[in-house]
Every structure is written in structure tokens, then in C-alpha cells.
Amino acid sequence: MNIRLTIILLVIAAILGGWYFSQQHKENHDLADLIKREGSPEYVGQQISTMVYDLKGKPQYFAKAQEIKRFETTERTEFLKPLLDLFDTEKQLKQWQVTADIAEITKDKMLHLKGNVRIENVEPNSRLSFIETEELSINLATYDISSDSVVKSQGMGFTTTGTGLTGNLKKQVATLTKDVKTYLEPTIIQKTKKQAEPSSNAAQ
């Protein structure tokens, strides 16, 4: 009888000991999850969108992405599969739509884009229609753009390819730096020229 009781007590003690150990392991695991690892983001969001305004309260850009990571210590934000709308702050209208595989905005307002980068002008009859490349940077304060990658750009009456780019989105200017090849569409250029010229009757 004493042996059976001893065995029962040992089994109960073993069960309680196992339960206690599992609870301690769970608490330690939960505590480890709460401790931020070095280099990890302070905030992670899925399917997030945000609107950013300048100091005068005018819309600067709208961003949405499959995933957004915010690093407070370095004031850096990462986007997975981003879509960004860049605004003309004077007109307060959307001017450019930007897509890429990955994007990063740094604390000095630099937007770095990587993978299948496409910048498309949403304004009708714009001089510069779109830019396609693999890597490109945009200064969100000045809208200056730069790239060292192979670039394709298209505008009213032309398509240009080359390596390396500098320009400005507000001015709708993009200059390729080397290995430049340009394809002109004369009919579109002539049509645009005629639209820009004043009518002879109107001038009299």
C-alpha cells in the first residue's frame, strides 16, 4: 500500500514539475518576444497606407504597401511592394505614381527604390510620361532624381534608353548620362509643335 501511494505521489510530483517547467519556459519565451532585438523595427504593419503633408499642410506624398517597417532609432521606413503618389504641392494634385519591389525613405527625405521601378506621370499631355529602371532615388523635398542603372524613359514623341540618369520630376526633365539611344516619333512631335504655336488668325 505504501509503495503504491509513493508511486502515485511521484507521478503527481512529476506532472506538477513538468507543468511548472512548461509555464516557466512559456513566460521566458514571451519575455524574449517583448525584448527588441538590435536592428529590428519598432513597428511592422501589413497592408498599411499613409498620407504625408509638408510643413504648410499641403499633401506631399501618399504611400501604401503590403508591409511597412518603421525604424525609430534611424528614422527610416521600409516598404514591401509599395505604391506611392507624389503630389504637385503648388496645385495640390497628384502628379506622379511610383511602384517598385522595395522602397526606403530615410530621415533626410530620400526615397530609394529597388526592383521593377516605374515612375509614371498621371497628368495628361505631360512632356515626360514614364521612367523604368531597377534602382532609382528621389529627393522628396526637391523631386530631384538619380540612378546608376539602365533606364528607359518615354515622353511626348520620344523613347530613350541609356545608363545612368539625373533629372527633376517637377520640371519633367530626365537626362541619361551614357550609352544613350533615342527613338523619335516625328508625327507626334509635329502635332505637339502645332498645338503649341498660336493660330495665325488669332495673332492678327
From TrEMBL:
Gene Ontology terms: cellular component: outer membrane-bounded periplasmic space; plasma membrane
Keyword Transmembrane helix part of the UniProt annotation: yes
Highest taxon in the source lineage: Bacteria
Broad class of where this protein is predominantly found: membrane
Database matches in InterPro entries: LipoPS_assembly_LptC-rel, LPS_export_LptC, LptC
Gene3D superfamilies, per database record: Lipopolysaccharide (LPS) transport protein A like domain
Assembly mode: Component of the lipopolysaccharide transport and assembly complex. Interacts with LptA and the LptBFG transporter complex.
Record's function text: Involved in the assembly of lipopolysaccharide (LPS). Required for the translocation of LPS from the inner membrane to the outer membrane. Facilitates the transfer of LPS from the inner membrane to the periplasmic protein LptA. Could be a docking site for LptA. Required for the translocation of lipopolysaccharide (LPS) from the inner membrane to the outer membrane.
NCBIfam families referenced in this protein's UniProt entry, alphabetically: LptC_YrbK
Family: Belongs to the LptC family.
Protein name: Lipopolysaccharide export system protein LptC
Organism: Frederiksenia canicola
